[in-house]
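Entry 12.
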Amino acid sequence: MIEKKYKRTSLRSPMKSQFIYSWDKKVQRSRTFNISQGGVLLESIPNIKVGDVIPIMMELPKIPIFPTLTEKYIFNLDPLQFNREIIRLQIEIVRIHEGPISFDQSIVPQMGGKFFKSSDTLVQDINDYVGCYKKNVVYLLNLIADLGQGKKHMPLLSHIANLLGYQIKDSISLLRQKVLHDYQSLEDS
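Predicted 3D structure (tokens):
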């Protein structure tokens, strides 16, 4: 058996959102790429170095678990109308690098930060978000697999992909690759 060289310490989930931060006596805005039980991957911020601790504020969307809902209810969902919790936290920057934010996108400057002195409530809220996202990704992968078996779920698949932030304009094959890539980040081992 081949042993993995790198084992993720926390499950991570895509979270393409914005956040605000305070640095050098200024409040500014930037983007998040993903969140995990241990930290967050952000668009790089100028004049920040590894070891810096910065306060940030961001939205944590409350996404429902789609497999527990009826199709009619799912079709009435709008991602802009999801409840959101505004969370305030501090992160310690642990790495700065340039890389793709997804396996098929261009290179962007990024920084990874771990949560610094976060509360148990905050950690639980993030765990809930990541766990919910995982269930929804599995559901989406099952819908994609059902297409190959001749089942007609394309409208539902398209809507759920949109709710989770995936671009459905891509081919189903590319969509499957993106979703599978994200699922692998959500696996326990």
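Annotation: The helical segments are 71-75, 120-148, 154-163, 172-185. The chain has a mean pLDDT of 81.
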